[in-house]
Known about the structure:
Elements: H1 7-56, H2 58-63, H3 66-73, E1 82-89, E2 94-99, E3 118-126, E4 129-138, H4 141-193, H5 207-234, H6 236-288, H7 293-324, E5 332-335, H8 336-353, E6 357-362, E7 369-372, H9 374-390, E8 396-404, E9 407-414, H10 436-442, H11 448-458, E10 462-468, E11 472-479, E12 482-485, E13 497-501, H12 505-517, E14 521-523, E15 530-536, E16 552-557, E17 573-577, H13 581-593, E18 619-622, H14 626-637, E19 644-646, H15 649-658, E20 663-667, H16 675-688, E21 695-700, H17 710-713, E22 718-721, H18 726-735, H19 759-772, H20 777-800, H21 806-820, H22 823-837, H23 844-869
Parallel strand pairs: 6-8, 13-14, 13-15, 15-16, 16-17, 18-19, 18-20, 20-21, 21-22
Antiparallel strand pairs: 1-2, 1-4, 3-4, 5-7, 7-12, 8-9, 9-11, 10-11
Helix pairs in contact: 1-4, 6-7, 6-14, 7-11, 8-9, 9-11, 15-16, 20-21, 20-23, 21-22, 22-23
Catalytic activity: ATP + protein L-histidine = ADP + protein N-phospho-L-histidine
Pfam families: HAMP (PF00672), HATPase_c (PF02518), HisKA (PF00512), Hpt (PF01627), Response_reg (PF00072)
Main location: membrane
Amino acid sequence: MKPDSPISTRISRIVIAAVATGISVTVGGFLVVDFRQSMLAETSRYQSAAFAFAAAASDGVAEQNARTVLEVIRGVRNLPEVGYIATLDSTGDVIAEIGGGARLVGREDAWWHIPTTIEVTADVRRAGRSVGSVLMRAQPKDLIERYLYAALYAFLFGGMLVGLTSYLARIKVVRVIRPLRDLSEQFIDIGQRSDLRRRLNKQRNDEVGVLVDAFNQMFAHIDERDRLLQRHMETLEETVDARTKELRAAKDEADAANAAKSTFLATMSHEIRTPMNGMMVMAEMLSAAPLSPRHQRYAEIITRSGKNLIHIINDILDFSKIESGKIELEEVEFSLDALVEDVACLFSERAREKGLSLAVFISPQVPSKVVGDPVRLTQIVSNLVNNGLKFTETGGVTIRLEVVDDQIAITVEDTGIGIASHQIDRIFTRFSQADSSITRKFGGTGLGLSISKQLTELMKGTVRVESQVEKGSRFIISIPFKMTEAASEISKRFDFSVALFDDDVITRWSVAQALEARGISVFERTSGVCKAVFIRAGTSHDLSDIALGMPIVLLRPFAATSVSIPNHLDVTAEVPLPIPRSAFDLVCAAVEDGDFSTLDFDCREKRTNVLPDLRHLKVLAVDDVAVNREVLAEALRTFGIQADLAESGQDAISQARARSYDVIFMDCSMPGMDGFEATREIRALEQVAARQPSLIIALTGHVMGTESGNWKDAGMNSYLAKPFNIAQLTRVFHDLQIVRPGNGEDIVTNHGVDSLLSSETMTMFENIRTSTGADIRSKVFAMFRASALDAFRAAVDEIMSDGPEGKRLVHALKSNCSSAGAARAMSICERIETVLASGATADRALLRELELALSDTLVAMAKLDASISA
């Protein structure tokens, strides 16, 4: 790279250029101005001569006498610089002329133009009248030559002046620049020697001196830094060791604090749930007792308050699990339709109590089945719906399920108080709401939205909020679920119109959207083109124009009792709100075909509060707290069970040794021998005595921490978290196949001859067929037949070879049996799983029993399938 010119040279060039330019412009300007002034004076002289010639030639011009005129203008010889003179008549024609007549082309009146030719004109007048003119043109050569010599001398002088100035400027610039040159040489020497201890010499107090001070200070800082770095490098190993010890100590302290927090939460959970258990069960039984309305109300308030307290405790524990990273998401196949509709049913009664609407819209593009965690997704949607109902006084809440950018978008929109834009970020902060007045007015922990946001993010999803104060809020959850079953194609592209009468804009929108998505036109009044009329129960619309015989579909909200419509109208079909997506095609097809016989929706609850009679069961209740034993015994009496009681683990083992029990409720936290150790002893006792294993249900208040899952490892069959209620106790009986609903029979699956197929599952299949028209039993049975025996053989091979996957394969087979309703096979899988969990090996007799149960189940499924086809 070519080096740049020295600074002194560049500054000298600048000075020389400036001086030369200044002198040139100044001298040139003066010469031009002076020359123009001289030319003006010459022009004035020639103009006077032209006037004289015009006066002398006036008679000749007037008479057009060329000879006379020529004699006059010959006097121009006395003006040697005049090159041309002519007289012209009044029309411009030449009368007489002397010299060359060529004229220069172009204008010479611009200010920058230097004139070299002088041209003047004078009128010829006779008796005051213009009879022609005289034109004279001259070139003042002497004047031009004089000024050219003057310009030459001026520029020669200017050049000498520029040269002198350049010489002096060079000397001065070099003198000024010399300190900078010396400074640069010192920098070069410092750089070559790498001697940062050296300091620059300061010779003057101008800018160079300031620069020297700044560099000396910088060198001092760099030198100090280098010495510190050297010292640090020498002590680095010692520093790292010390910091490592400090970090290890801090980590141990943080782990201890985290463990203490987890232990505290687990202990507090247990300690709180134990007394809550007695309160909740007794309050529930009290509310079911024949009390006066006033005392009945007291019992209901106690029960409701207890549920709210449990909900708050669960929120705190869920948040603790998420915060500690101990929460695990399931990956199972589930139906989005069923999940959203279950949430709507769960909150429908609360919405009705507040006079609010609860609507559901599921886009036809939403897949039927996806893979994910349905429990946690239900928790997310429930929190959002609960939040919407809490902060809404009029209007209602809408749940929308759509597909947006290949993700499932769940939108929960309310018409409540709304959220100010500057407060939106706060609502997802733990233990925080929009402002303190919200907490005072509506209550709550401020954890629901925080938990929902964190669960959504664990599912790789996002949460978005849109809100306006006093208009409502919209929460949009987007999650990339994996689709396993696409949405069912709309069987028909319906091409007809219906009238929809609904005072509620929220439910009307959801119904209208679902109808229009299927190609149906929706009107707010009847017309000749309408094939049917949809009327919401209790509508205030004027229905007098509806023609007799017009098909009427009554839309009745959940738990609604009013069916107020004019007496002259007969309801053709009755449909529950919200209408399941799978039912819309059936309704639309019935309207189009005019055949409503296929619709058989029952909006009334078919549940019964009658509990099963389980008095034949032998049950042992184990708990070290007398109140808990009394509560559990009283709860079991509602099922007709007279339970034996044990107050310790040793007492439970003694009673289990003396008597075989069908079911044992085992408290996990007891002094001395806890429930886990007692269970292991009972399992060993059963194995030695070759006794049918009892169903052992863990009673625990530990829903988090290290003890939350220990019941599985101890060989227990299920667990019941404190506090529990009668419904949860019944659910445990159902889950363990101790009792199944169906025709009033109670079937003990682990004692005596149990059913091959679960009546509960068969009832569910029948309910699906009744509500949607789709009989899925054949499809489920076919899938079970295709996979069950292969799964069984894989599990047997793994178990017999003591492989690590045996327990997992048996668990997978159990889940398959549960989904298909293979009750007996599922029960045997549970027994095998219990044996494997205890560390023992399943004997061949138990595996053979499972094989026979599977074979018999497949035969039973084939028979049932054949009867369905027939």
